[in-house]
Design a protein that fits this description.
Chain lengths: 602, 384
């Protein structure tokens, strides 16, 4: 197809504003997929995505659309992940496009990610096609929402299609507007190859499938390609385009097109999102801008509940990593939890998704430790140490000062919740920056928030305090000095490493008390009294006592039914086996969960 | 400590009650019409051993029978003729020792007490166990017991008059709304009678009972209170000269319940009647808890090997004889690991266990925690 008839676009939206549903309708309208084959939200092909209603990994599909003018166009829809944890992937997908459809929910209007994604799209000079969705809902107010968009984003909405992706109403209009507004690509077939990797997926048969946007040049099977960032070279096995349900090989990819490459690549680590593909022969002088290796921001220990599953956990993590270059893991050992892995994630959602996939797809029972961020510890000897595991926290006497990551956080909310939001942010050690009325009923509250205060349950707390009306977006700002301490938990005098964590000094006391209480409530009484202590360094700051059990006896052991008594004891032994033993104390899994659980934190 | 003299005991389970007590989960029926059929069946079984044919041998009839126990249910619902018939079956068929202990459980609500005990004694009964449960009327009523405390006193007198040598009372701790005061009242009432033995059980609400369903609202003492009551009771009875020879059993002058001791000492026994359990030639087996199946002659079910190291430890530690570790290690060819010794010294330091001359015994506090103590010892022993 000549470049004039190609349109490369993404769909961007706040979560739940209908991105995936619209994608489905576009596939149907262009006959890319028959109604019968239509699973709901085809582009999200993982169960968890379907359940959570979010797209985790970007995918792309080529649609052929016969416009009202009679011309046929090749429309490449590049789907984007819809969550802040995957911002970098979003930015690479957008960089592969010339335009973006901006969906706004006609009942909710502009939300945090509407703006966040809009700014991202504008950063990449994309032409925006506003679309008002969910007009079938009784609460829809498209006029107000159009006014909002014009006022807040400065985007003309006079001709914005007003659609219902759910019912299909007016969806064809969206295709017309894409053809009309999104510029065609302007690559040079004769220039050295430069193709942007916007996604890569591991396939059992083909190896890594690299999704690319051809910027300049051409590529055929048999040619030798090179990833400019990793330097890795491969012989191209196959190139092709993406149909909705399958990959369709073709002879050659040309500039302006969107397609895939396979080259017997073993791991997505060699084909990272954002890298530039060129040819070994006549390579491009410079890679495309914007590549960065994304680093995990949130870390936690992941342990099999049953130690025997350690190998199975490793295999599962390896398989997930094949497809997820941003997931990192390395073995670690905990006295409390045994053998497990320290895993790094892009954010809390990423963590939850991986955890859920491990439990669901690999049938593993897991115990995870409190998530941690990466702290920079400056020692008195002038050196700096980065740690993401409280176990590695140095002796406080050796520490000069500590820095923690902070974020630029924007919360968008109706004005009536400003008080509640400020209370929450204050409570999370937020530093107020400014507040803008972006419209009559929408306020943008800007805070600097420490990352470790938002990785637990900030979003949940925000939702409950604003009845779900507030939305939230953040980006890492950098590191700031902070007064942090490490809390240790001791049972009967023994340190329980898995329960140690790093916390701001001001919060240490109430948190310590709460942990001690929870452990006391969740550890069953045992033959002897057990002191529960929470300490900073050597200093105990909270203490509880689990009283000794007094009665555990089968008073009546006669009538000759010995077997029944024996079975009761065996059951008791089984129960004991399910507990973790520390020195002399037996701790049930639930006690860990109660302490490690993310909700109900001080 | 464990019995290997070849003797056996016989247990008759009499699964009939005038009414079902709300805390009891033993197998019993309330229809007395089937009593005669039951007596016939149980006599037939004792004669033919047809239900336990797979588990016994010809040798069984030459084994010395050292004890017979009528348990229930309510064995005192049997007529004297039925009791006599069952005992005749034993003496005719087996080698009943002349000094065998023959125990009958008795509900104090029994009518014509003197005539009953005279008849029972004449038939051979020389030990009775009377279900007093509490000397306090409100507590007995809470347990579904209708007769007064005097009825139990009358039973003791009548039994003694009849020449029954051993009289035991059953008491209970952990009755709804029981207090230290009422517990002491019951103990002193029991001690005022001419008894040789006392059993005191901590009430446990078993699933399937009325008490279990209502356990939250019954006013049951909590575990800490129960523990206090138990220790109070042990102290009180010891001060009155009783020997605390098993978790729930006390006696004067060495007059232990020999039949029950057999269970704790790994001795052999045959049980007849629905839900009765047997242990013979190292195997455990039982009749189903189903009266009709028993009447129809349904055979016993295998429960596997008994007398394992775990069982011996569990049973021995119930008694004041305790567990002789040297014998135990020799019998089962065990090396006692370091972890086991460490656990012993922890338990000893904690006051739950006494260790003397190679024998371990539970203290009163240890008995209260016997499950946890035994489980911890077994785990340490078998490295579980």
């Amino acid at each position: 197809m000549k470049q004039e008839n190609i349109r490369n676009f993404s769909i961007i939206a706040h979560i739940d504003h209908g991105k995936s549903t619209l994608a489905d309708r576009l596939l149907e309208l262009t006959n890319a997929v028959s109604r019968r084959d239509m699973q709901q939200q085809l582009l999200d092909n993982m169960d968890i995505e379907k359940e959570r209603g979010i797209t985790i990994k970007a995918r792309a599909v080529t649609l052929y659309y016969k416009a009202d003018t009679g011309e046929t166009y090749e429309l490449n829809l590049i789907d984007t992940p819809g969550h802040v944890d995957f911002n970098y992937e979003v930015s690479r997908s957008l960089a592969a496009c010339e335009g973006a459809v901006l969906i706004v929910d006609a009942t909710q209007g502009v939300e945090a990610q509407t703006l966040g994604n809009t700014y991202l799209a504008l950063d990449h000079d994309l032409e925006l096609v506003p679309v008002i969705n969910k007009i079938d809902l009784p609460a829809a107010d498209p006029d107000r929402v159009c006014a909002d968009i014009e006022e807040i984003i400065g985007l003309d909405c006079e001709n914005a299609p007003r659609i219902s992706a759910k019912t299909g109403e007016n969806v064809a209009e969206v295709l017309e507007r894409i053809v009309e507004l999104v510029p065609c690509p302007e690559g040079d077939d004769d220039a050295p190859l430069r193709a942007l990797v916007f996604d890569s997926v591991y396939d059992n048969y083909k190896g890594v499938i690299v999704y690319v946007r051809m910027m300049d040049g051409t590529l055929k099977a048999g040619e030798t390609m090179r990833f400019m960032a990793s330097g890795a070279e491969f012989t191209v096995v196959e190139v092709g385009r993406m149909a909705a349900l399958s990959l369709v090989p073709c002879v050659e990819l040309k500039s302006g097109e969107v397609g895939y490459i396979t080259a017997s690549i073993k791991s997505v680590v060699d084909a990272r999102v954002g890298d530039t593909v060129t040819k070994a022969e006549n390579p491009a002088a410079k890679p495309l801008p914007g590549y960065k290796k994304v680093n995990p921001m949130v870390f936690c220990g992941v342990y099999p509940a049953d130690g025997a599953d350690y190998e199975a956990l490793r295999e599962a993590l390896e398989k997930l990593q094949l497809n997820d270059a941003s997931l990192s893991f390395e073995p670690e050992t905990s006295g409390a939890l045994g053998f497990g892995y320290r895993c790094g994630f892009l954010g809390l959602l990423h963590l939850e998704i991986i955890e859920e996939r491990l439990e669901r797809e690999y049938d593993l029972d897991l115990v995870t430790t409190v998530p941690s961020v990466v702290y920079k510890i400056y020692l008195s000897d002038g050196t700096m140490k980065e740690i993401d595991n409280p176990t590695n926290y140095p002796d406080p006497a050796l520490i000069s000062y500590v820095e923690e990551p902070v974020t630029d956080a924007h919360i968008y909310s109706p004005p009536e919740y400003v008080g509640a939001i400020m209370d929450l942010c204050q409570d999370r050690r937020g530093v107020f920056q400014n507040m803008d009325y972006i419209s009559a009923d929408r306020v943008d509250i800007h805070y600097i928030l420490p990352l470790n205060e938002i990785i637990y349950d900030f979003f949940d707390a925000l939702k409950s305090r604003t009845r779900g009306y507030a939305s939230f977006d953040y980006e890492l700002k950098g590191y700031e000095k902070s007064n942090l301490v490490k809390l240790d938990v001791l049972l009967n005098g023994d340190l329980i490493d898995a329960l140690s964590f790093i916390i701001h000094a001001e919060k240490a006391y109430p948190r310590a008390r709460k942990i001690a209480e929870k452990l006391k409530d969740n550890i069953p009484r045992q033959m002897f009294e057990i002191p529960v202590q929470v300490a900073i360094g050597g200093k105990v700051i909270a203490r509880e006592t689990i009283k000794a059990m007094r009665k555990d006896v089968l008073a009546k052991c006669y009538g000759g039914d010995i077997t029944r008594k024996k079975k009761l004891l065996e059951k008791q032994k089984e129960g004991k086996k399910r507990m973790r033993r520390f020195g002399t104390v037996e701790v049930p899994q639930e006690a860990f969960m109660a302490v490690l659980k993310l909700d109900d934190q001080v | 400590m464990t019995r290997s003299d070849g003797s056996i005991g016989i247990y008759f389970h009499v699964p009939f009650c005038a009414s079902k007590c709300p805390y009891c989960d033993f197998y019993s029926h309330c229809d007395p019409a089937l009593l005669p059929a039951y007596a016939d069946a149980v006599i037939r079984e004792a004669h033919t051993l047809s239900g336990c044919r797979d588990f016994t041998d010809a040798d069984v009839f030459d084994r010395r029978i050292e004890s017979v126990y009528f348990g229930g249910g309510t064995p005192s619902l049997l007529s004297i003729a039925q009791i006599g018939g069952m005992l005749s079956a034993v003496s005719n068929r087996f080698s009943l020792a002349p000094d065998a202990e023959i125990t009958l459980e008795v509900n104090p609500s029994l009518q014509d007490k003197q005539a009953f005990f005279d008849g029972a004694a004449a038939a051979g009964v020389n030990r009775v166990s009377i279900g007093l449960q509490s000397a306090v009327d409100t507590e007995r009523r809470a347990l579904g017991r209708r007769s007064g405390a005097e009825a139990a006193a009358d039973c003791v007198k009548a039994a003694k008059n009849a020449g029954v040598t051993d009289v035991s009372l059953d008491l209970m701790i952990g009755i709804p709304h029981q207090t230290r005061q009422t517990l002491l009242e019951s103990l002193d009432f029991a001690l005022s009678l001419d008894i040789t033995h006392l059993s005191a059980y901590i009430l446990k609400t078993e699933p399937g009972t009325v008490f279990y369903k209502r356990r939250e609202t019954l006013g049951l003492p909590d575990d800490d209170t129960l523990a206090d009551y138990y220790l109070l009771m042990c102290e009180h009875l010891k001060n009155r000269g009783m020997r605390h020879y098993e978790i729930s059993n006390f006696c004067f002058d060495g007059r232990v319940g020999r039949h029950n001791m057999r269970y704790w000492q790994n001795g052999a026994y045959l049980g007849f009647g629905p839900s009765a359990h047997s242990y013979y030639n190292g195997r455990r087996f039982f009749y189903a808890d189903d009266l009709q199946a028993f009447l129809d002659g349904k055979p016993c079910t295998d429960e596997g090997a008994g007398g394992t190291a775990e069982e011996i430890m569990m049973l021995s530690l119930r008694t004041d004889a305790g567990l002789d570790l040297r014998d135990f290690a020799r019998q089962f060819d065990l090396q006692l690991p370091d972890g086991f010794t460490k656990q012993l010294s922890r338990l000893q330091t904690g006051g739950l266990l006494a260790y003397c001359d190679g024998v371990i015994r539970l203290t009163d506090r240890g008995m209260l925690l016997s499950n946890a103590v035994i489980v911890s010892l077994q785990s340490a022993l078998f490295n579980e």
